[in-house]
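Repro:
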Amino acid sequence: MHTYTQAQRRAIHKRTLVIVVIAQLFGGAGLASGITVGALLAQDMTGSDGLAGLSTTLFTLGSALSAFAVGRLTQRLGRRAGLTAGFLAGAVGALGVVAAAAWDSLPLLLLAMLVYGAGTSTTLQARYAGTDLAAPHQRARAVSIAMVTTTFGAVAGPNLVSPMGRLASDWGIPALAGPFMLAAAAFALAGIVFAILLRPDPFLVARASAAEAPAAAEGSGAADAAAERAGSRGIVVGAAVMLITQIVMTAVMTMTPLHMKHHGHSLDMVGLTIGAHIAAMFLPSLVTGVLVDKVGRIAMSCAGAVTLLCAALVTAFAPGDSSAWMIFGLVLLGLGWNFGLISGTAVIVDATTLGTRAKTQGTVDVLISLAGAAGGALSGAVVALSSFAALSLAGGALALLLLPVMLWYRRGGSRPAGRSLGA
C-alpha cells in the first residue's frame, strides 16, 4: 500500500479539483442540452402534453440506476472508474436518442433516455470527487468548485439548441435531436478526461491514508455510538434536503418549456430561459460553498426552502407571455436548488466515513434521481389536470417541509467534523 504524506495529499487534492473543473465543462454541456428539449421531443413523438414529462421520468430513472452503479463501482475501484463509466454510458444514451428521433422509434427513445440518465447522474456525482481529500471545513467549497464550473457548459448547452437543431436538420435528422448530438460528444469527452487524468485516484488515496492510522480513528464505545447516531441523522437530513429540492426543481423546470410554448414563446427564448435557470443552479456555487462552510448547513438549507417558495410564487402568478418574469422565476428556482444541493451534500459527507462513503453517496443520489423522476412524471399529470400555476404552488408548499426537517436536525445537536453547523 502506497503511503502518502500530508503535503502529497494536498497536492493530489488540488490536482483533482483542476481535473474536475475540466471534465465538468463538458459534463455540464451534456447535462443541459438534453434537458432543454427532452420534454419537447417526447411531446413531438407522442403527441401528448400529459406524456411530455415521460422523457424527464426516464432519464431520471436512468440516473437512479446509474448513481447506484457508479457509487458501488467507486467504492470498489475508485472515482476514476466510476466517473468514466458513467459518462461514457451517458454518451451512448445520447446517441441512442438521436437514432430514435431519426428513425421515429418511440421504444428506442424510451430506452435511450434511460441510458442517457447515466450522464446526468455522473455530472452530479463528480461533485464528490473534490471532497475526498478536503479538510472538513472546506468540503462545501470543494463541492462548489465542481458545480460552478459545470455552469459554463450548462449555459452553453441550451443556447446551442438552435444551431445544433439546424445542423441536425442539415443531416436529415429532426431538429430537436440536435442537442443530443452535443450531449453525446460532451459526455464522451468528460469520461475521457477522468479516464486519462484522474491519477492517482483521490478516493483510493484517502482510503489508504485512513487505513494507515486505524487506532487514531477509534474512540470510546460511548463516543462511537454517539457518532453513529449523529451520522445516521445526518444522512437522513442531507438526503431529505436534496430530495425535496430536486422534486420541486424538476417538476417546475420540466413543464416550463411547454408552458412557454403554449404562450407563444420561441424556441430561442425557451433556451434562454432554461439557460438562465441552469446558470442559477450552478454559477452561485462558489459563494454558496463559502456560506455553507461559514454560516452553516442548517441556515443555508432553510434559505433554499424560502428561495424555492419565492420561485413558486413568481412562476405561478407571472403573466404567461412575459419572458422576463419567467426567467426571474426560473433563476430563483435554480438558486434554491443550488442552496439545497450544496448544503445537503455537505451534511452527507460530514455524516459518513470512507468505509461506506461512496456507497452511501451513490444510494442517496439514487433517491434524488427517483425524486426527480417522480417530479417529472407528476408534473405533466398536474398540468394536464389543473394548470402550471397549480404545479408551481404545490412545489412551493413542498419546499416548506424543509423547515421542520432542519429544526429536528438542530435539536439533535448534530455537528460536522471539526465545525459547528450554525443556525
